[in-house]
What we know:
By secondary structure, the protein is mainly alpha-helical. The chain contains 12 helices and no strands. Helices cover 63% and strands 0% of the residues. Nickel (II) ion binds next to helix 2.
Amino acid sequence: xxxxxxxxxxxxxxxxxxxxxxxxxxxxxxxxxxxxxxxxxxxxxxxxxxxxxxxxxxxxxxxxxxxxxxxxxxxxxxxxxxxxxxxxxxxxxxxxxxxxxxxxxxxxxxxxxxxxxxxxxxxxxxxxxxxxxxxxxxxxxxxxxxxxxxxxxxxxxxxxxxxxxxxxxxxxxxxxxxxxxxxxxxxxxxxxxxxxxxxxxxxxxxxxxxxxxxxxxxx
Length: 219
Ligand code: NI
């Protein structure tokens, strides 16, 4: 099977798995993460096929997007990978990279990631910040029926991934403090660090404007 056909097959599988996703986690998110990953991979020594496949598949085991249980989704992912002409190390690398990339899991301590895993993690995190990140946080908040902002609801500090699942953000604005503004310092690669810095500054500027407008002040 040629690379193009492998990618097409992966895309088909992903589209089926994420068809119930909200607009912050839809096919366009997958596509953007894939593009980010390919961009970062240009400056890193890595297996680019593993990077691309892992980026396409990265949300397939996230049950807040797919529904079902993590066990079932992991099983689906492994069975699907068996149908692709990849060597065992590549398949293991893909599964491992996907399993360890999430922000929630990184709250439990540093995870050992392959370079392909690091690229994927950075690529997904870049899509959570900047102009796109802002659009996604409000889209996701709306899908969950959350307020844009509530001055009485303060951001929470969470200790572990379990707590992160249980509580969730109360407002879209709180999510900036609980996750998005932390991502800049969590990037692995130099390319992602550079892009993240600019996107971070844009979010800070956005928040300044948001509070001014919220309080009826002149800009
Ligand atoms: Ni994602």
